[in-house]
Design goal:
single chain; Rossmann fold; Methionyl-trna Synthetase, domain 2; Isoleucyl-tRNA Synthetase, Domain 1; 4 domains; 5-stranded parallel β-sheet; 43% helix; globular
Amino acid sequence: MSKIFISCALPYANGPCHLGHLRSTYIPADIYARCNRMQGNEVLFVCATDEHGTPIAVQAENEGKKPIEIAKRYHDMIVEDVKSCDITLDSFTRTTDKLHYEISQNFFLNLYNKGLIYEHTIEQLYCENCHKFLPDRYVEGTCPVCGAEGARGDHCESCGRHLEPTELKEPQCLTCGHTPVIKTSKQYFYKLSNFEDDIEEYIENNKKLPSNVRNYALNWLKEGLDDWIMTRDMKWGIPVPLKDAEGKVIYVWGEAFLGYISSAAQWSRKTGKPWEDYWNDTAIHFIGKDIIYHHALFWPALLSGYGCKLPDNIFAGEFLSLEGKKMSTSKNWVIWVSDFVRDFDSDLLRYYLTINAPLNKDTDFSWDDFQRRVNDELADVLGNFLHRTFTFTHKFFDGKVPEYKNPSQEDIEFEKLIKQLPETEKDYINDFKFREGLVEVFKVAKAANKYFNDQEPWKAIKENPQKAANTVYLCDQLAKSFATLTKPYIPKTADKIAKIVNITDNDTWDKATEYLPIGHEINKPKPLFQKIEDSTIKAEKEKLYKNLEKSTDNGEKKMSEKISIDYFDKVEIRIGQIKEAEKIEKSNKLLKLQVNVGDKTLQIVAGLAKRYSPEELIDKKVTVLVNLEPAKLFGVESQGMLLASGESAALLVPEEPVNVGEEIQ
């Protein structure tokens, strides 16, 4: 028996949960936790809301409230969202809890006293009217790359570029609207560079890490690790526990990780069980792919500095889009968990988000596809098999499991599937292949429907009663097995199956291999799944697009905003080829490129460093906007723009052979 520490990425407490959160993190973590508990392993499954940082502070100022009020509001919403989807967390706390403050400050002091945190002076934007420095989201201005207004100090929503506050043109303090000035500020940095070799060894030798995590981390390591800023000049956050650090707080990424530990520590105080036993046996993080860098590089380096065991595995779910478009909370192009579970059973959501694609691939939520899978798979395959089985048990065998003897070859082959399924599915889940495990359940359910049809028990009951009895006997056994094997995925449905089968223990994996005794009474069947009508899906899609229209009416840029052909004619886009690429000093995001566009070579600064290493960009053909007004980023002139897909920074490259300098018409 193992002890397993499982954590979910901390949801940020400035909004409720949407479907993307569930798909990448909470549902897969819950599947894994449930299955391991059912195998007899001891599981400590923890999470917390991340409640510090500038977005919450800015929202509080805008609403005239205290940051803790904003955090509490959304913490309560997130708790309800998680509960509504049957996520079986053992501890769900907050990073504003007193214990978290204590753990975070002690952790910081430990690293500081070891000489791993040091002082360093940097340039920052400062508002002379508010008398404060302006961390990323406290400042807005014009994007230096695309010229869009309203770009934040960390990100431009229009072109998807990552930014630094000092890069913005015409910056303004978000609080008062005044133009800030550049001042120097003393901050504290962690010696991340000291741990480069240790982290590389950890990533290279940890064969459990999935490929998307390993490859992403190794690409970063090729460029070397820069020391990491650990503090911010602001009031909202955990104060830096040093005498000369008044007005400074620990950067969110310097303390949010410790939410895993503080949540576990609170659980220990309640139960008397040491959380360390679980961490030291097996520790697994479930995160979204947007925070791989933090969890695969920075977090292990912090733990190494402190002297802790590193996580055994970091499982990163890829992104979920919506109706073929990137989700956007600002544009209201999103489905909130609370809205979904108000209209549909949460098991349907758990099923769809799991079956739709492996977690290591991006996938899309489509209302039409959701309807198809619920109707054609849950209702017509699993629901149909179970209903037929239970109905025939009552119709021909008085609701009791019939006698099984003299099995045919078809019976023997079908029984093999029943006996193999628990071990096969368990292996898939233990290997983090959640979709494959669920697919296996449905393969057997489809095979069961075929077996039932081929045996024709409605005919055999008259011509060969034992053949009919064998058919119903085996189908009753598979139904009983499904009551256990579907529990990690669709727990409420699994319990309904168990109630009809008339068993009370469907929480132990080995029970799936135990057969019902002959004569065991089966309760009367009830429909497990209702088909979703076309009118229901039509209404959901109309509601989704109506929400989008509301957001654009409130001043958001419309996704399909029209421009004239004359305006577009001014844009010159060519095929270019990257000839040189290098990292820009002190930037984790930007690369300086020399791009041949035919009649000239342009120097372009691009935010590609988190996706591509400089080496893998050399000689790559790319799509380039060549007549863009030059702008400076990090003090380096950029003379054009590479076309890439938003925040993921995936380059748009030609599929067919093309010539360098060729203009795109």
